[in-house]
């Protein structure tokens, strides 16, 4: 029998460059030894140098901090630590949260959740005058707008790229970014009407978009900022349309069904998801009261 005496710090933060994350629970392991690794065999003690291992993987789930409200003290602003101000329930903030996770930045960018129903005064006064989430504190500046922030996080932090080099894919990505507002408005209009014609058209456009590239199940083939831009909203639209309008967005849309299935294999995304029942009740309160 061998006796091991080790002092290691273990961190998991996965993603293979240029590939969508594997559905495995462990894809990265990095650790540093405080002391040498001693393996004592009978009559043959040996000392090994600390191993250097760096294999990227989404494995450990970070402990999420509680949301800060009007009674909470503010964090120290501009202390050199990048901070991502979000709400756990906001789909726009969820975009930036996913991007941060996918690039393995859980230890580099600190999450600062805000209670939007009882938001602290100091957030508007000291952090972000627009008083919205998400916002990102980085390099002594605070930036906002989710679409801009996911691009910023991808360009200014380490980790696998979320925007392809292929010119045709970059061009299509820009088209899909521009298309988002019309997609969103079409679906929301169906929430307020007797028919779901606008939603049908909107999701047909998504099915067509997902058929553009055949090298993977995502909008650009491989997982990208485009998937991040759409996922939080489709996550919310799907249960509401099914429950309230009896409209299954995946019926007859095999590409969309496969995309949803593949998205649910990406831990960077799944750890940010809300309970579908919670999303449904939230949307019922928001939209059915307007009908």
Automatic annotation (TrEMBL):
Query: What molecular function does GO assign, one term?
Result: glutathione transferase activity
Q: Does the keyword RNA-binding apply?
A: no
| Catalytic activities | RX + glutathione = an S-substituted glutathione + a halide anion + H(+)
* Gene encoding the protein: LOC104220686
**UniProt entry keywords in alphabetical sequence:** Detoxification
What family does the database annotate?
Belongs to the GST superfamily. Lambda family.
Entry protein name: glutathione transferase
Which PROSITE patterns is this protein grouped with? GST_NTER
UniProt-listed Enzyme Commission number(s):
2.5.1.18
Task: Supply the source organism for this entry.
Answer: Nicotiana sylvestris (Wood tobacco)
List, alphabetically, the PANTHER family matched.
Answer: GLUTATHIONE S-TRANSFERASE L1, GLUTATHIONE S-TRANSFERASE L2, CHLOROPLASTIC
Indicate the enzyme's highest-level EC class.
transferase
- Known InterPro entries for this protein? Glutathione-S-Trfase_C_sf, Glutathione_S-Trfase, Glutathione_S-Trfase_N, GSTL1/2/3, Thioredoxin-like_sf
Q: Name one Pfam family in it.
A: GST_C_2
GO annotation, biological process: response to toxic substance
Question: Where in this chain does the record put each GST N-terminal domain?
Answer: 80-161
């Amino acid at each position: 029998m061998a006796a091991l005496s080790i002092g290691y710090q273990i961190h998991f933060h996965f993603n293979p460059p240029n590939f969508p994350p594997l559905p495995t629970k462990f894809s990265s392991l990095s650790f540093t030894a405080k002391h040498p690794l001693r393996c004592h065999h009978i009559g043959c003690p040996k000392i090994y140098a600390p191993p250097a291992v760096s294999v990227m993987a989404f494995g450990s789930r970070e402990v999420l901090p509680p949301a800060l409200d009007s009674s909470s003290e503010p964090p120290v602003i501009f202390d050199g630590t990048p901070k991502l101000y979000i709400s756990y329930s906001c789909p726009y903030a969820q975009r930036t949260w996913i991007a941060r996770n996918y690039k393995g930045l859980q230890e580099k960018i600190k999450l600062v959740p805000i209670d939007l129903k009882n938001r602290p005064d100091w957030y508007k006064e000291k952090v972000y005058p627009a008083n919205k989430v998400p916002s990102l504190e980085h390099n002594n500046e605070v930036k906002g707008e989710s679409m801009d922030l996911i691009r910023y996080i991808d360009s200014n932090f380490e980790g696998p790229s979320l925007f392809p080099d292929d010119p045709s894919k970059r061009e299509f990505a820009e088209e899909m970014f521009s298309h988002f507002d019309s997609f969103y408005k079409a679906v929301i209009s169906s929430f307020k009407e007797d028919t779901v014609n606008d939603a049908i058209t909107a999701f047909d456009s998504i099915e067509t978009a997902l058929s553009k590239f055949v090298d993977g199940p995502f909008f650009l083939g491989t997982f990208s900022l485009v998937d991040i831009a759409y996922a939080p909203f489709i996550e919310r639209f799907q249960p509401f349309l099914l429950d309230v309008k009896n409209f299954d967005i995946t019926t007859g849309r095999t590409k969309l069904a496969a995309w949803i299935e593949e998205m649910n294999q990406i831990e960077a995304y799944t750890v940010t998801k809300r309970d579908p029942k919670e999303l449904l009740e939230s949307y019922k309160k928001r939209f059915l009261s307007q009908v």
